[in-house]
């Protein structure tokens, strides 16, 4: 069965973006970049990866899931950001923009969609954002891969939006600290 991995950059105080949706304080260069790309290749928008000379094939994921706000960060320049992956955007009330013919937009229940995806053949499923979608899918997330950055936002979009659920433990599978201050912390359910 396929697994859902929430792979995302996060501040040390638990935000995936600042108060105005900004994420430009996350480090994209440094001694962490190559090792993390080796582990999670294919997780940059296709055009950006190609411009940087990074291969997009052979990564751990063949499907990427996004909420509308995460998807809309790249508009209008990147209406199909991850052309090398199957792209599914969860939205209510937004229409597909021009150039997004290979992006699936759905208002279906995310849990139902993820359960169907897990039953299909393929490799991993990547939840790349955002916090509200992660909260809805919390019980379906098999793995967490958090790129903790040495920055404090103080407010913003939390890793998981507020919701009423009981605490649940994930067990650490790997923690790698880099001189840049980035820490890749990986966890598995239970």
UniProtKB/TrEMBL annotation:
GO molecular function: 5-amino-6-(5-phosphoribosylamino)uracil reductase activity
GO BP annotations listed: riboflavin biosynthetic process
One Pfam family per UniProt: RibD_C
Domain Bacterial bifunctional deaminase-reductase C-terminal: start-end pairs: 4-184
InterPro entries: DHFR-like_dom_sf, RibDG_C, Riboflavin_Biosynth_HTPR
Top-level taxonomic group: Bacteria
Listed name of the protein: Dihydrofolate reductase family protein
């Amino acid at each position: 069965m396929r697994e859902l991995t929430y792979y995302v950059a996060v501040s040390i105080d638990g935000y995936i973006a600042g108060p105005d949706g900004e994420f430009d304080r996350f480090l994209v260069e440094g001694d962490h970049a190559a090792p993390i790309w080796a582990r999670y290749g294919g997780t940059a928008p296709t055009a950006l990866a190609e411009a940087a000379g990074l291969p997009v094939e052979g990564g751990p994921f063949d499907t990427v899931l996004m909420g509308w706000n995460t998807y809309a960060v790249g508009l209008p320049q990147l209406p199909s950001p991850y052309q090398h992956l199957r792209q599914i955007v969860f939205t209510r009330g937004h229409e597909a923009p021009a150039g997004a013919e290979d992006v699936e937009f759905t208002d279906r229940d995310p849990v139902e969609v993820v359960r169907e995806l897990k039953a299909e053949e393929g490799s991993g499923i990547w939840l790349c954002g955002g916090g509200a979608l992660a909260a809805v899918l919390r019980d379906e997330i098999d793995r967490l891969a958090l790129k903790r950055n040495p920055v404090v936002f103080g407010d913003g979009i939390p890793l998981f939006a507020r919701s009423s659920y009981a605490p649940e433990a994930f067990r650490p599978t790997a923690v790698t600290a880099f001189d840049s201050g980035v820490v890749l912390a990986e966890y598995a359910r239970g």
